[in-house]
Amino acid sequence: FLFYLAEAMAKGGVAAGFEAAQARRIVGHALDAAARLLAESGSQSEPRFDAATWRARVTSKKGTTQAAMECLDAEGVMAAAARAVVAGRDRGRELGKISGGV
Hints:
This protein is mainly alpha-helical. The chain has helices spanning 2-15, 20-40, 51-58, 64-74, 77-98. The chain is 75% helix and 0% strand. α1 packs across α2 (20-40).
């Protein structure tokens, strides 16, 4: 569902005044940078920081990221994303039963 989030972010970029291609490019670079931080910090078995720590480290008080996070929190995005993971798991189990899996 990261593609879903990227789509929403790009739509927001357009609403903020960026051209569609520019908004998509900015979102792609932001997601790439975040993914690299998560994947490459620390060792393979033990990441240096988890997502919550990285988010806290890049969020300046009263800055742009804080404003964005406050908006997401007000809309319940964190809880909705967590529920989406569980819904995907549940559907995977259903499909496994239909196809004769475990």
